[in-house]
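Why run this: before we spend reagent on co-expression, it is cheaper to look at a predicted model of the complex and decide which construct boundaries make sense. The entries below are exactly what would go into the expression plan.
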Amino acid sequence: MKKSVFTQPTLPYLLLAPQMIIIAIFFIWPAFEAIRSSFFIQDPFFGKSTFVGIDNYTDAVGKSDYLRTANFTFWFTLFVSFLSLGFGLLFAVSADQVLRGQASYKTILMWVYAIAPPVAGLIGIMLFDQHIGPIVDFFALLGWRMQVGVSYFDTAFAMTVVATWKQIPYNFIFFLSGLQSIPRAVREAAAIDCRRPFRRFWTIVFPLLAPTSFFLLILNITYAFFETFGVVDLMVKGEPGNNPVTLVYKVYQDGFRGLDVGGSAAQSVILMILVLALTILQFRLIERRVHYS
Amino acid sequence: MKTTVLLAGAFATATFSATAEPIKIDWWHAMGGALGETVNELAVKFNESQDEYEILPVYKGTYEETLTATIAAFRAGEHPNIVQVFEAGAATLMGAPGAVIPVEDLMTANGVDFDIEDYISGVRYFYADEAGKMVGMPFNSSTPILYYNVEALEKAGVTPPKTWEEFASTTAPALKEAGYIPAAQSHLPWIFTENFFSRHNIQFATDNNGYSSAAPKILVNNDAIKAHFTAVKDWVDAGLFGYYGTGWSDNQTPFENQEVAMWMGSSGSFGGLKQAADFEFSATFLPYWEAVTTEPKQTFIGGAALWAMSGHADDENKAAAEFFRFLTSAEVQYFWHQETGYVPITEAAYEMAKADGYYETTPQAEVGIQQLTLPSGEWTKGYRMGFYVQIRDVMNREYGRIMSGEASVEDAFSIIEEEANQLLERFGKTSG
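The model came back. Tokens follow.
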């Protein structure tokens, strides 16, 4: 194969430049600004800064609710990612087996994804409203008196359900297209070798879905970490009180509601490091087991 | 759409009637919905009342969003002439000298008469500096009062409680017997904390409730308020009090649904309640603890003030001053009071409402202003603390933990004290 070589050494850099400029302006510069701000206490109006060393970090982490928030974020991310991946996969496998009316099933299952996050949050709030929510009425029949907004656990439960529900169709779409790209021959061969569909799924189909699953895992963790912001905000109605919030929400709350720029910056740097570590870990540990065709 | 039409109308009249181009000023506010329309109506009235100046109100979202937007705009040099900032954000503005022009200075410098004694006493010093100079112009001012369902109380054979002792021994058990949850409230930091200190005339923060220092210490860890929260928690457990979380309307709804017999909310809630409740309700003063004081005092205002921002041309400042003259006139205050349920901020407007017979037809509308004009005490003028939005968040969190039984009253209050003081210390560094 002939290697194509650019004769001009500057051209590739020029072609890369727009992308690099965008990354620099929208990612690298703000990230450095956050790191710089995290060592200062700032007056919001004039931006007069006082250097305080690592005080912002110790203050943030030292607060009684920081660990609680971190703990909640961990479990929330775990549950939302695995539940939405699990249900997405289950529905995809089921829809893949449907022969008649497949299109309508698919459309119905994907529908939810078209709902804007705030609208989904609002629907969730209505379903879980402590005075008029049908889900609350349903659980009351089973003897669980849910009080979203009052009980920490109940709010966490409602948030997890709404955030998961919102993400299932996304996973569903990817899993379904993943399933459909598995060659027919492979499936037929598997069907001859192994009669039990359950076993067949875990030994043949699931490994072939691994690249899709890995990609979705990373996306889902990012989703639970960052993109559930809208759901959280609507669920706690902007005033968290004794309700669970995610770390990202706390960054927003302290920075934008509380106008504590330095403290908020320190928290976002911690978050940045955490996500970076998580991503490296995922690529190191999990990606090795993934086979790309 | 109605807003657009109104605004378009305002532009049209202003443009065609003026010989010279009017001086335009911006007003950022946080009044949505029906309140927002009343704000637009005020602007139209002002623009039509003269042809030299024109004010343009812009809705900027919630109180917090408006403040954040203003700060961002200020740093970019694009800030409005007038901005509405709520009570918890007052210290942020006061802590940035040079960002705002005190209204008292603005008005006197532009030849508008100003006398702080014209304002009713519960309103007068809340947005003032240490020396008592008014810095922010009180705009939508309300105070927490007790609303009650008339029929529910009749059914239970009780009258609205004057004291918490009466509530505990008589009112609450009778209402529970009659099938109601006796009481609920919508804002623990505002109603059961800040105004608790004022009603019982207890010091809330060092350094003159925070007015004379950028980094006071909060004195929230006080036996009287801890006894109050211990009692409230016992009432909640015994079914004598309803706690529905931090959300304002979550606590108001059960009162509207007639599940809760008495509800403590804002005097400004009156207009909305009148529309939502299809039963007879009335209002009275907040109860007090006889064990703490036998001479209950006035409460102070909540809501927001209008602040004139610096860095604008002299003629624009003149326009802002003229707008404040218009806004504080008795007619406009009375209009605002009737439309929204917020209290009139001047004595003259209050007198006008009385003379007009407004309180004979709607006596509930007077309760807020009566409570604001009760005898004042040493600690009733308000408080001034930085990072107060976060301090309130800490309070709400810890109060929630008390109510759900996760924390004891003692522990919760020491956490509030500790974290609030850390925040105050940090704030001291930002403005120092």
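Residues 64-97 of chain A form the longest helix (34 residues). Chain A has twelve helices and two strands. Bring this page to Monday's planning discussion.
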